[in-house]
Amino acid sequence: LVDQLAAALRAVERPSEVRRVLAREPVEAVVLAAAHGAEPARRWLTDWRHLRPAITGTDLLAAGLSGPAIGAGLEAATAALLDGAAPDRESQLAAALGAAPPPAPRA
Predict the structure, then answer these.
(1) Taking the model in full, what pTM does it have?
(2) I need a surface site. Which of 15, 48, 60, 101 has the fewest CB within 10 A?
(3) What's the burial of 98, exposed, middle or buried (CB within 10 Å: 0-12/13-18/19+)?
(4) Of 102, 98, 59, which is closest to residue 80 (Cα–Cα)?
């Protein structure tokens, strides 16, 4: 497993991609990968996994999103935060709204 994680981490560059690779892995496997020299695994453990966007689903509801669009928006805001593209609340909200599909028209 450690070799597979190390290989997957060599194929990615951005912190959001590291998150995608490591998010569902047991933390013990990530620790082992970091101990074997996988720097992205170490950074995920010490820095990136604790970052949370300043916006919440409530903010996206207030902006008119609903259902799966909220999850997609929060994911986009988190990725933008990790990659340094959205360091503040306003830019995270813009990233979330830009990634979410528009709400369906009401009948």
Answers:
(1) 0.87
(2) 101
(3) exposed
(4) 98
